[in-house]
Amino acid sequence: MTGADGSPPPSAKEWRLNLYLSERDPATKARIVLDTGDHVLESCAEAHRNPDDTAVPGIGDELAAGRALISLGRQLLRAAAGDLSTAGVPEDTPPAPLWAPRE
To answer: Which SUPFAM superfamilies does this one have (predicted)?
Structure first.
């Protein structure tokens, strides 16, 4: 089936992402499970509060979840790079790192 201009009809996909947070002071753990329908990816990360700092649970949640999302994003980019390589697409310049390595 094609559109009036001969283009394929738009498609829609739904990916399910579940984010689980657990806290055992001073640590917060985040676990993310992404189900694309074809594959399942999982990522975990932690945040640790300095015992001298005031306990603000929301900050630990944000840090742990943000770190797990970054890790999941990297997994997705690696998967796409592998798929491109398998398809024979020439290698492109890799994206710039999110932060500079420690010296």
So the answer is: Rv2632c-like
Residue 68 lies in a domain: yes
Q: How far apart are CA 95 and CA 51, in angstroms?
A: 37
Q: Is 55 helix (H, G, I), strand (E, B) or coil?
A: coil
Q: Are 49 and 57 in contact (CB under 8 A)?
A: no
Whether a cis peptide bond, with omega within 30° of 0, leads into 26 is: yes
Q: Note the helical H segments in the chain.
A: 57-86
Q: What is the pTM of this model?
A: 0.75
Domains in the chain: how many in total?
1
Q: Does the structure show a pLDDT above 90 at 15?
A: yes
Band of the pLDDT at 98, cuts 50, 70, 90?
low
| Residue 103 placed within a domain | no
97 belongs to a structural domain: no
What is the rounded radius of gyration, in angstroms, for the C-alpha atoms of the chain? 19
